[in-house]
Amino acid sequence: MRPDTPADHIAEAERLLRTADQYPQDQEPLLLQAAAHLELAGERGQASSLYDRLLASENPEHPLLVKAFQAANLWEYGHEAEARALINGIQAAAPTEAAPWAIIAETLENHDELEASHECFSTALTLLLSEGDEEVPYATRSLLSGRHRVRRMLGLPHDEWDKTADRVHADHTPDVTLDELHDPKRLWALGSDNPAELRAEIARLHSELGSYRSALSRPFPVAVLHWPEAELTELLEAYPVLENEYPTHAAHLTDIEASLRDLAATGTENLGIVTATVPSYEAFAASEQSSPANADLLPQYATTLAARGRAAAWPPARGAACWCGSGSAYRDCHGA
Predict the structure, then answer these.
(1) What span, in angstroms and rounded, lies between the C-alpha atoms of 89 and 120?
(2) Taking the domains of the chain in order of start, what are their residue ranges?
């Protein structure tokens, strides 16, 4: 059951903090979840302290993402000047991931800074997506949709990115167009006495609710397990029976890419790759009271790592290095 009251959110935050103490290697995603629950409980000061704790830690994994969450929280907490400074710093850093851009653009939008929000969305898409791209990464879709929404509120005409946003939306929610969902006049219909208008608004809200439910039902990626060569060698030396799963390292890498492409072809979204290590896998097997030689544990191990925020999104961002660790660009390696 999801927490519903401030007390529930505080209890969940405390549970996540205890878990973070048990798994320091997974501290960042756990503390981010705890901070989110504290925000929902109205404890924005405590949430801000958690963001500061993450930024003060040694080598945070996603510092710009943490700063984006902190900026959104500070603005709601009454510290607009600090929030703006963080947003300016994130924009200057030009992250190559979609999430920080989406958070700061939506923060500006929520505070009626529509022109600044539009500029933020547009800058992000210029970095992460080419106009006319047929394949739009899952994480980038929120940027397209958000920019479309802000442009509708600004009364701007459709451009190529808006057309891409319409196409992506139609592929997943064909019943209601994106223009209808983002119509600035929609709220006026809620006060209408016309039953037809009210039914139309209910249909639109159902469509939006379906999208939100879909996102909530997949809080972390569908993840595939990746063993670096040295780790796989150590694993097979210790548990030779697993050679049936991994005949060679090259075949293992090929299978990962093929599996992900198959999942994508069937419409599965939010795909990711988690990197395995032998000590972590052995600890997981012990927690399950099973032997690491049990191949049935492998997908469960992958899911557990993904739930702890250890998954890297697939496919990699445009121009990014390949997930296999070769050092080559993805498009020139397994993405070829």
Answers:
(1) 12
(2) 6-216, 222-332
CA separation for the pair 116, 110 (Å, rounded):
11
Which residues of the chain are under the pLDDT cut of 70? 1-4, 131-134, 174, 185-193, 197-198, 200-221, 318
Token readout for 329 is 């660009």
> Residue 201 CA to chain centroid, in angstroms?
29
pLDDT at 91: 96
Residue 331 to residue 36: CA distance in whole angstroms: 35
State pLDDT tens for residues 156-192: 999 989 998 888 888 777 677 888 777 776 655 555 6
271-275 and 222-226 as β-strands: parallel, antiparallel, unpaired?
Answer: parallel
- Best CATH choice for the domain 6-216 from the list 1.20.1250.20, 1.10.260.40, 1.20.1440.230, 1.25.40.10: 1.25.40.10
Of 279, 294, 283, nearest in space to 227 by CA: 279
Q: Exposure string (b/e) for 15-43, b if CB count within 10 Å is 16 or more?
A: ebbebbeeeeebbbbbbbbbbbbbbbbeb
Note whether 173 and 210 are within 8 A (CB).
yes
Give pLDDT, residue 110.
87
List phi, psi (to 5°) of 224. Answer: -110, 140
Give tens-digit pLDDT for 312-323.
888 887 678 899
Residue 212 CA: distances (Å) to CA of 112, 188, 205, 208, 217: 23, 22, 10, 6, 9
